[in-house]
Amino acid sequence: MMGVIKPDIEFKRELGRLCGSQLNQCMQCGNCSAVCSLAPAERPFPRKEMVWSAWGLKDKLIGNVDVWLCHQCGDCSTHCPRDVKPADVISAIRLQSYKHYARPHFLGKLVSSPGWLPVALAIPVGVIVAILSLAGTFRIPEGPVDYSAFFPHALLNTTFSAITLFFYLLASWGIGRFWKDMKRLNPPGAAKRNRMPVARVLGEILSHSSFSACGSRQVRKVAHMLLFFGFGLLILVTLYAIWATITHHYPLPLSNPFKIAGNVASLMIYLGLGIMVFQRLSRRSIFGKSNYSDWLLLAAIALLTLSGSLVEMARFGNWSVAYYLYFFHLVAVWFVIMYLPFTKMGHIFYRTAALLYARSIGRK
């Protein structure tokens, strides 16, 4: 008995809007899969994904492990004779996946549509204002700049950790559903392994080895690594800063190794973001379409890093606007960290899960 095809026309329209391609123009020549250095020999991508996209087969695309094995290098788009841009189509499918797996659903909408941006910003602003009001510190302190007098660090760290944990528990709910869908759509075969290849996947992520196989956008690997390791280093520095507040060794002097590491991390992020923005603006034919989700992520990380640098300078320079900058920085930090699993940066979790599952079933 033949399977029943159930196209989702609205899903197809949204894919077309996000990627800017005419999906029906794909003539299934197979060039995209032939030039892809990452596609497995058995059931290679993205040719089959292009067929499913043209048909609007959401059930085959959402939860498809191969969508996340693609690193969007653009080789397939560069060699597409019909200019359908398969790399942009795959990126659009991933954006749809974030919204599909977001729980509750409105969290996916908050960071995927510009109309919802005021609401997305209002949530961290409202929470921070409420905490400051309850603490009785919602005022500009007199004397030298002392951020702890404006926002007690014990209260800051406790509330931020609790809210972040809550949002990430919600995210884990969606990632769990994603894992179940991968098992349903890509059932383990005879090559299934007994153990999850965590070490191998971790090595792939840290080395960015898959980026090295891409031909059209080698510079993208450099930019991605600068942003990835810069952001990771900032998180480590932040964790140390939290520990320093608990042990009463805060604020940190400029000569502190962790303070130096934080400044180096900021420079890495600035450089990585600069490369990404330049590539998106100057090489659109190769880099592909940039949509709202792309620019929101880049802008949010840029504002977080820039405000952090300004807050540091304001403290050492005793600037009169220091506390206003600090409030803005807190909003930027909470916005990026809270919504991270539901934005394009959520690929940190989804791609990692996909790589783990793919390697565990022997899909290379």
Provide an overview of this structure.
The chain has 19 helices and no strands. With 364 residues, the chain is mostly helical. Helix 14 runs antiparallel to helix 15. The chain is elongated and about 70 Å long. It starts with 8 loop residues before the first helix and ends with a helix. The model has no long low-confidence stretch (mean pLDDT 88).
Q: Classify the secondary structure makeup into a structural class.
A: mainly alpha
Order of helices and strands: HHHHHHHHHHHHHHHHHHH
Whole-angstrom Rg: 22 Å
Low-pLDDT segments: none
The helical percent reads 55-70%
State the end-to-end distance.
31 Å
Total beta strand runs: 0
Helices, by number, come to 19
- Kindly estimate the percentage of residues that lie in beta strands according to DSSP: under 5%
Largest sheet: none
Shape: elongated
Q: How much is the average pLDDT? A: 88
Summary of the model, kept short:
With 364 residues, the protein is mostly helical.
How are the secondary structure elements laid out?
Elements: H1 9-19, H2 31-35, H3 47-55, H4 58-61, H5 66-69, H6 75-78, H7 86-101, H8 106-110, H9 117-135, H10 147-150, H11 153-185, H12 198-207, H13 209-212, H14 218-246, H15 257-282, H16 284-287, H17 292-317, H18 322-339, H19 347-360
What key attributes describe this structure?
19 helices; elongated; mainly alpha; 0% strand; 364 residues
